[in-house]
Amino acid sequence: MDITTIYWIVLGVMGLGVIGAIIPGLPGSSIILVAILGWSIATSFAGIGLPMIFIFIVLILSAGVEYLALYFGAKQAGGSKWCQYGAFIGMAVGFFGLLPALPIGGPLIGVLVGAVVGAFIGEYLYRSNLESEARIQQAFKASAGIVIASIIGNIIEALLAAVAVAIFVYSTWSFVFPPTLS
Question: A Pfam family in this protein (predicted)?
Answer without folding.
Answer: DUF456
